Amino acid sequence: MSLPPIPGGLAPLPDAEKVIADLLAGRPELAGITVGDRLPDDYDGSQQVVTLDRIGGPANPSTMSWFDTAHLDVRSWGKDKAAAQSLSATVRYLLSVAVYLEVPGAVISKTEENVGPQWLADATADYPESGYYLLQVAVTLHPPA
Predict the structure, then answer these.
(1) For the stretch 23-59, what's the b/e string if a residue is b when 16 or more beta carbons lie within 10 angstroms of its beta carbon?
(2) How are beta strands 49-56 and 66-78 bridged, if at all?
(3) pLDDT in tens, 71-121
(4) Which of 6, 52, 117, 137 could tie 10 with a disulfide, CB 3.0–4.6 Å?
């Protein structure tokens, strides 16, 4: 969906959650791993999955551009602690270098790790060995020029 420019020439801000999910899903390091805003319907505790949720963050207009600093919870799920840790380490790396990667629909100007990584076992106990590592990151991005 294409939105009209904001008066003054500013374009609508990109959906940061989607931009980062698409970025991660398109990386060869995460080939075959589901990336999205929720666990897949067929999740059974054995898959590696990355989920993202926006938890806040302000828009910052300036005289030259229109910036969004999105705060994201990024969960790296695995069948056990070791699998989740390995996936989290890869995701952590990709987020740290995101400012150097080409991203359709947005320019990422900064990434900052706020909290992470922390292990959280599956709270439902449906899959007692599984769980996820949580990272909280701030991603500053804006529409392409």
Answers:
(1) bbeebeebeebbbbeebeeebebebbbbbbebeeeee
(2) antiparallel
(3) 999 999 999 999 999 999 999 999 999 998 878 889 999 999 999 999 988
(4) 6
Is-contact 37 53, C-beta < 8 A?
A: yes
Q: Find the domain containing 38 and state its range.
A: 16-142
Separation CA 106–CA 92 (nearest Å): 20
- Residue 121 is part of a domain; what is its CATH number? 3.30.2000.30
DSSP-based three-state secondary structure for 28: helix
Q: What are the residues whose beta carbons fall under 8 Å from the beta carbon of 49, sequence distance 6 or more?
A: 33, 34, 35, 36, 39, 40, 43, 76, 77
